[in-house]
Amino acid sequence: MVKTVDKIAVNDPVNNPEQRAIIDQILNENRHKPGATMVVLSELQNKIGYISDAMQIYVAKQLEVPVSTVHGVVTFYSFFTTTPRGKHTIKFCMGTACYVGGVPQLIEKAKQVLGINLGETTADGNITLEACRCVGACSQAPVIVVDDDVMGRFPAKKIPQVFKNLQQE
Ligand code: FES
Q1: Are 105 and 125 contained in the same domain?
Q2: Ligand 1 binding pocket includes 93 (Cβ within 6 Å)
Q3: What is the reported pLDDT for 169?
Q4: Ligand 1 neighbourhood includes 103 CB (under 6 angstroms)
Q5: Same domain assignment for residues 105 and 37
Q6: Whether pLDDT at 84 is above 90
Q7: Is residue 3 situated within a structural domain?
Q8: What is the pLDDT of residue 68?
Q9: What is the model's pTM?
Q10: How many domains does the chain fold into?
Q11: Ligand 1 mutation pick, 78, 92, 130, 134, max ligand atoms within 8 A of CB
């Protein structure tokens, strides 16, 4: 749970004048709308790319809502991230059909090849691994989503090639 802003990273959007201006603009344009918290957080995710702990505290203060409310929304919806995503995102469907159909093996292979866990980004900022809910292609299990491309019946042996292709883009 985030509570204080004692240690805001130097490069946090809250400390960056340009990003801070965007944050303030989003707050000012939406603070009086119904469901302002959700609206503001969605806009921040779209425009800044993530919602850091310091941003959550700042938004809570500005909207005069508890930090726990903002944090609860950010952690409940997989759409929100608290760290920057990589240039490319690979999502692994964790729906029942895909889970039973072999997604855990795909995840293990991906972790092994990239050396990162789900929710993390490679050191070069190129690839982020994430879990996602059912994407509606259950008959194609196991399914991964590479950026916006849904790829079904995906074998673990093809994982290294996907990474290689993304590294070359
Ligand atoms: S369970 Fe994976 S697409 Fe439905």
Answers
A1: yes
A2: yes
A3: 74
A4: no
A5: no
A6: no
A7: no
A8: 96
A9: 0.72
A10: 2
A11: 134
- What's residue 119's pLDDT? 84
Rounded to the nearest whole angstrom, what is the distance from the C-alpha of residue 132 to the centroid of ligand 1?
Answer: 9
Predicted pLDDT at 7: 66
Is 145 found in the same domain as 98? yes
Do 110 and 64 fall within a single domain?
Answer: no
Is 122 part of a structural domain of the chain? yes
Does ligand 1 come within 6 angstroms of the Cβ of 151? no
Cα distances (Å, whole numbers) of residue 22 to 13, 43, 60:
9, 10, 16
- 36 lies in which domain range? 13-76
Strand partners, 128: 89, 121
CATH number at residue 163: 3.40.30.10
Q: Which two tokens stand for residue 57?
A: 């505290």
Q: Is the CB of 143 under 6 A from ligand 1?
A: yes
Residue 99 CA, closest ligand 1 atom number: 1
Q: Which two tokens stand for residue 107?
A: 């995840």
> Same domain for 109 and 47?
no
The closest-lying atom of ligand 1 relative to the alpha carbon of residue 137 is 3
What token pair was written down for 3?
């509570």
Q: Rounded distance, CA 17 to CA 68, Å? A: 26
Cα 124 from Cα 59, distance rounded (Å): 29
- DSSP assigned state of 151: E
